[in-house]
Design goal:
The protein has 652 residues and is of the alpha/beta class. Among the domains are: 42 residues; 141 residues, Toll/interleukin-1 receptor homology (TIR) domain (Rossmann fold, 3-Layer(aba) Sandwich), CATH 3.40.50.10140. The strands form 3 sheets. The chain has a 15-stranded mixed β-sheet. Strands 19-18-20-21-22 form a 5-stranded parallel β-sheet, sandwiched between helices. A hairpin with a 5-residue loop joins strand 1 and strand 2. It is rod-shaped and about 160 Å long. The relative contact order is 0.04. It holds the Pfam family TIR. One of its GO terms (cellular component) is plasma membrane. Keywords: Glycoprotein, Immunity, Inflammatory response, Innate immunity, Leucine-rich repeat, Membrane, Receptor, Repeat, Signal, Transmembrane, Transmembrane helix.
C-alpha cells in the first residue's frame, strides 16, 4: 500500500510540474495557525474559506522540506506557510512569490524562522506588496548584514494587513529612520510589530490609512507619536507591555487620532501626577485598557469624558474620589485587583451597567450600592476577604433583593474572617435580627429589664420584702448594740417561761384568762408581758427581741385582731427567726378566734405556713373544755428554767 501511494504521488508531481511548479513537495497543516496577529476587523484569509482539494498524497499534517531548502507548512489555493528561510534560498522564494501577481487566488502568506539580509527582506516585502497577498505574517525574523536606506514602492498593493513578530536586528550601527520609514508609511489597514524590542516609530509622512496598530511587547516610551496628526483613521491602538510612564502624555498622543475607538495601555509603567497637567484624550475614544500599571485614585481625574469602558484592574487604587468629573457615558468599569475597601458609589457614573471589584480588600460591602447605582445590571464582587459579621447582613439582604445582579454568586463569595468561619460561603452565613440590630437589642434588653424590675417590685410588694428587710436590719442593729454595750450579757439566761404576743384588742382575754390561769396555782409559770417587762428607754423592737430571747417559749394569741397589728407581726417575725437560728421548738400558737384566709395579709405568709404545718391550741367556746385547754398549754410550757438554760448553754 505504501509503495502504491508513493507511485501515485510521483505520477502526480510529474504530470503537474509544468502547470503547478510552485506546488512541488508540499504538505498541509492547520489553517488557523496562519495570521494569529490579524485584527478582528479582518477575516483570517480575506475571502471565504473554500480551499482547493489536492491529491490525497499531499493532504497530511507533516512538515515537508522542499528542494528549495525551506519547509512548506501549509499550502492551499488561498494560504501558504513557509519556514526556515535563509540566504541560500531567499532568491528562490522571491522568484516563487513573483509568480503570484494580482489575480492569483493566494491571499495569506506566513514566513517563519527567516534569517536574511536587510536588502533581501525589503525585496521579499516589495514582491509581496505587488502580489495578490492581502495578509502577510513574518514570525522570528533575524536581520543579517547591514541596514541601509532603501526606497520602497507602496503603490498598487492588495495588502491589507502586515504582521511581524520577534524581530532581531544584528546590525548595531544603523540609522533607525531607515527601518521606521518602511513601516510608518505603509498604506495598509493593519500593522503589527510585536516582541521586537521596538523603541520608537516615526509619524507617517502623510495621512495614513492605518486603522489597526499593534505594537505590543516592545520598548516604546512616552515619545511615541507626540504631535503626530497623520493617524486620522486609526481605530484600534494596542501598546500592551511597553515602557510608557506618563498618562497625560499618552492622552496627548491620542488627542489628534480623531477616529480612535480602542486603546490598550495595559502592563506598562503608567502613573498619574497632578503636576503633569490635564489629560487631553481623543473625543472618539470609547474603550480604554489601563490594567496592570501603577495608577492610583488620581486616575479618575484623567479619564476621557466620553469613555464607555475602562479597565483599571491590577493597579493601586484605594478609593473612587468624590467630586471627580462625571462620566455619563461610562457603562463598564473594571476595578479588580486593587486596594478598595468598599463598593464605590455611582455619583460620577450615572450610566454604569457593569462593575467589577473582585480581588480587592472589601470586608463588609455597603448595602446601599444599588440605591446609588440604579442602572447597574451586573456586579462582580467575589474573591474579596469578606468579614462575616452583623455588618454583612445588609449586603446579604441586598443580594436577595438584587434579582441575580451579583455575578459569581455564591461560589465566589466566601468568608475570610473570622477564622472559625473561613471558607464558609456567604449564602450559608446567618445571624438573627436581634443579634445584629443594636437598636432592637437595646429595646429588647430595656423591656426585659423593665419587666424584671416590675416582677421584682410586685413580688417585693406582695411578699412585703421591704418590711422584712427593715426588720432584719433592726434585729442586726439591736444585736450589735447589745454586743458592744453589754459584753457581760452576751450569754443571756432564760428568765421567763413564755413571752406573750397579742393584739391590744384581745388584751381583756389575756389579762382575765391567760395570765391568771398560768401564773396562779401550783407550778406557776413566769410570763413576759410587754406592759410590765419592757425596759423603759429602749426601743420597742429591742425590748421585743430581748423578751423573746429571755423566754423559753413564745405564745401567740391569734385572732383577726392579731393579723391587723403591726407590732404583732414584728413579734412573730423575731420569734420565727429564733425558731430557725437556734433550731428550737419555741412557738406556741393559740387560736382565740377563727381567722378567715382572706383576712390574713400577704406579708403574713410565715403565719400561714406555721398554721399549716404546726399544731396549735384552739380556745374552746364550751366552758367544760377550758380545763383541758389549760392543762395542754401548761404541759407545753412547763419546764425548769435553770435546767433549760443549762441545756441551751451546752448546745451552744
Amino acid at each position: 500500500m505504501t509503495k502504491n501511494m508513493r507511485y501515485l504521488r510521483n505520477c502526480f508531481i510529474y504530470n503537474c510540474l509544468f502547470v503547478f511548479t510552485f506546488w512541488d513537495n508540499i504538505g498541509l497543516a492547520k489553517k488557523n495557525e496562519l495570521f494569529a496577529s490579524v485584527p478582528n476587523n479582518f477575516p483570517e484569509d480575506g475571502l471565504d474559506k473554500k480551499n482547493m482539494s489536492f491529491p490525497h498524497s499531499y493532504a497530511n499534517n507533516q512538515h515537508y522540506k522542499a528542494d528549495y531548502g525551506w519547509v512548506m507548512i501549509e499550502n492551499t489555493t488561498e494560504s501558504l506557510s513557509l519556514s526556515e528561510i535563509a540566504d541560500d534560498n531567499v532568491r528562490k522564494l522571491i522568484t516563487l512569490l513573483s509568480k503570484f501577481r494580482k489575480g492569483s487566488r493566494l491571499r495569506n502568506l506566513t514566513l517563519t524562522n527567516m534569517s536574511v539580509d536587510w536588502k533581501d527582506i525589503i525585496k521579499v516585502l516589495q514582491v509581496v506588496w505587488h502580489s495578490s497577498i492581502e495578509y502577510f505574517n513574518i514570525n522570528n525574523l533575524t536581520q543579517l548584514g547591514n541596514v541601509v536606506s532603501t526606497r520602497f514602492d507602496y503603490s498598487k498593493t492588495s495588502m491589507k494587513a502586515f504582521a511581524v513578530n520577534k524581530v532581531l536586528i544584528t546590525d548595531l550601527y544603523f540609522s533607525q529612520d531607515d527601518v521606521y520609514n518602511i513601516f510608518a508609511n505603509m498604506n495598509i489597514a493593519a500593522l503589527t510589530i510585536a516582541e521586537s524590542e521596538l523603541i520608537h516609530m516615526l509619524c507617517p509622512s502623510s495621512d495614513s490609512p492605518l486603522r489597526y496598530i499593534n505594537f505590543s511587547k516592545n520598548d516604546l516610551t512616552d515619545l511615541l507619536f507626540q504631535n503626530c496628526d497623520k493617524l486620522i483613521q486609526l481605530e484600534t491602538f494596542i501598546l500592551h507591555r511597553n515602557k510608557f510612564e506618563s498618562l497625560p502624555k499618552v492622552s496627548f498622543m491620542t488627542s489628534r487620532m480623531k477616529s480612535l475607538r480602542y486603546l490598550d495601555m495595559s502592563s506598562n509603567l503608567l502613573r498619574n501626577s497632578r503636576a503633569e497637567g490635564r489629560c487631553q484624550w481623543a473625543d472618539s475614544l470609547a474603550e480604554l485598557d489601563l490594567s496592570s500599571n501603577q495608577l492610583t485614585e488620581a486616575v479618575f481625574e484623567c479619564l476621557p469624558a466620553n469613555i464607555n469602558k475602562v479597565d483599571l484592574q491590577n493597579n493601586q487604587i484605594a478609593s473612587v474620589p468624590k467630586g471627580i468629573t462625571e462620566l455619563h457615558s461610562l457603562q463598564e468599569l473594571n476595578l479588580a485587583s486593587n486596594r478598595l475597601a468598599d463598593l464605590p458609589g455611582c455619583r460620577a457614573f450615572t450610566g454604569l451597567e457593569i462593575l467589577n471589584i473582585e480581588r480587592n480588600l472589601i470586608l463588609t460591602p455597603s448595602a446601599d450600592f444599588f440605591e446609588t447605582c440604579p442602572s447597574v445590571k451586573e456586579l462582580q464582587a467575589g474573591q474579596n476577604p469578606f468579614k462575616c459579621s452583623c455588618e454583612l447582613q445588609d449586603f446579604l439582604r441586598l443580594e436577595r433583593q438584587s434579582g441575580g445582579k451579583l455575578s459569581g454568586w455564591p461560589e465566589a463569595y466566601v468568608c475570610k474572617y473570622p477564622e472559625d468561619l473561613s471558607g464558609t460561603q456567604l449564602k450559608d452565613f446567618h445571624l438573627t435580627e436581634l443579634a445584629c440590630n443594636t437598636t432592637l437589642l437595646l429595646v429588647t434588653a430595656l423591656l426585659l429589664t423593665l419587666v424584671l424590675v416590675a416582677v421584682v417590685a410586685f413580688l417585693c410588694i406582695y411578699l412585703d420584702v421591704p418590711w422584712y428587710v427593715r426588720m432584719l436590719w433592726q434585729w442586726t442593729q439591736t444585736k450589735r448594740r447589745a454586743w458592744h454595750d453589754c459584753p457581760e450579757e452576751r450569754e443571756t439566761a432564760l428568765q421567763f417561761h413564755a413571752f406573750i404576743s397579742y393584739s391590744e384588742r384581745d388584751s381583756l382575754w389575756v389579762k382575765n384568762e391567760l395570765i391568771p390561769n398560768l401564773e396562779k396555782g401550783e407550778g406557776c409559770i413566769q410570763l413576759c408581758q410587754h406592759e410590765r417587762n419592757f425596759i423603759p428607754g429602749k426601743s420597742i423592737v429591742e425590748n421585743i427581741i430581748n423578751c423573746i430571747e429571755k423566754s423559753y417559749k413564745s405564745i401567740f394569741v391569734l385572732s383577726p385582731n392579731f393579723v391587723q397589728s403591726e407590732w404583732c407581726h414584728y413579734e412573730l417575725y423575731f420569734a420565727h427567726h429564733k425558731l430557725f437560728s437556734e433550731n428550737s421548738n419555741s412557738l406556741i400558737l393559740i387560736l382565740l378566734e377563727p381567722i378567715p384566709p382572706y383576712v390574713i395579709p400577704a406579708r403574713y405568709h410565715k403565719l400561714k405556713a406555721l398554721m399549716a404545718k404546726r399544731t396549735y391550741l384552739e380556745w374552746p367556746k364550751e366552758r367544760s373544755k377550758h380545763a383541758l385547754f389549760w392543762a395542754n398549754l401548761r404541759a407545753a410550757i412547763s419546764i425548769n428554767l435553770s435546767v433549760a438554760d443549762e441545756q441551751n448553754r451546752t448546745e451552744v
